[in-house]
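Appendix B, example 12.
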Amino acid sequence: MSHQLQNYFLQKEGFKLSVRSMLLFILLFLGAWLIYFFVQITFPNQTLISHFVRIVSAVIATIIMLVSTIKLLEKSKIQKEALGLKLNAKSGINFIVGVVIGLLTFTLMGLILYSFVPFHFEEGSLKGVEVLTDSHAFFWSSLLEELTFRGYPLIILSQLLGWRKAVWIMALPFGLSHLLVMGLTIDGLMMVLTTATGSLVFSYAFILTGSLWTAIGAHVISNIMLHSISGLDGLENAMFIPVFDTNWPVNYNPGLISFLMGAIIMAAILFLLIKKKFSHSHLHQF
């Protein structure tokens, strides 16, 4: 027996973009992120007070984005349920699904990297309590980023152009936003490429379950594994530090290749699952 699924990513006949709403979203986005980045720069150290202030700024920015997203979606006659953020057991399951997606993606990247340059882990400087503190910060920053890049704009672009094109379009601004961290350098451009590719995974995760919690779960665990646990970000400030058993190649970057390949493979798997799910369900528009 087939079931009916409400799908906010299918194009609604006669949908019209409100340019005013889009511009208002951009202004609110700039305001929320200015607050967030100003506090991050002003309180950069790792003291408890600085951590608390940074979290408060992230919460404030997140509330601004959440409220504005819901209001602007309603102006476009799209229900807030399109975000799939209602707090219930199903949302918890969707978050766990996202965590699994993130872990599988990260594991795939690690295996590909190992095939290029074998490595092993040694104990790093970060302790369990510090990992928990980082995880708390990653949760709020990931929630803010998902609302910004996979919330209102992805849903609206899906209505205008279809979900396939929307996913690829939103990958670019998400990637470019990370230039604020790295600057216009070679490393910065590589981060744009890797984060844009990661955006495909997060967007497809959202579309697959219809819940932004899935994208948030994948995003949070990806940051935790990369920066706080594995040390594969190269900053040597994690619970474990990778020690490579052979020399790092000079003619190519296995880290970049591994990240791109892992993310692309997972994105392809999620894309196929979405197509299968949509084709086996009776979908109706909102």
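DSSP finds ten helices and four strands in the chain. Residues 120 and 257 are 19 Å apart (CA to CA).
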